[in-house]
Amino acid sequence: MSQVQPKFYSNDPKYRCCCGCCHVMTIAKFISFLFTGGTLFYGKEFYEVIQSPAYVRYSNILLACFLIAIAISISLWYGLIEEREGFLLPILFCSAITNFLQCIISIALPVFMIISMIRSLDAELTISLIRSSLLFMMQYWYFRVLKNAYYYIKHKRLSLTGDSTGYLR
């Protein structure tokens, strides 16, 4: 008895984001453009920092971070353009770590805010809490878009090879 292989449907609602108006690959490419721009901006800042004698001892760490960001950016672009899901794993891993750390910050700030409120109301702490929460939400959205792009590419590749068991849930 033969099984009917389900067809891959690229316009499935699970591959749409921004309230269904954009495909996940389009938004993933936009996010990678922003990530690459941020990396290049970081490189410009890195160059200015290593010129200062106060930060000379940190230049190796900053250089390592910059080179890792460049490698992740190249991997991200290659994965999106060539539709290779394995090349999206470094950015997903780094994004998951960032989400975890941002969540810890978002939880710790209210504790400091409550302690601060006991002493006096501090507007800077309130602004930090709002900023931290917004950064967490943006980072989570960023992670979700890239994760959906990962699954889109994976499901598309599996449907082309005929291995339908990989994406039937």
From TrEMBL:
The keyword Transmembrane helix applies. InterPro entries: DUF7027. Pfam families: DUF7027. Keywords: Membrane, Transmembrane, Transmembrane helix. The chain crosses the membrane at residues 21-41, 61-80, 87-113, 125-143. The keyword NADP does not apply. Residues 54-108 form the DUF7027 domain. This is DUF7027 domain-containing protein. It comes from Plectus sambesii. The lineage of its organism: Eukaryota, Metazoa, Ecdysozoa, Nematoda, Chromadorea.
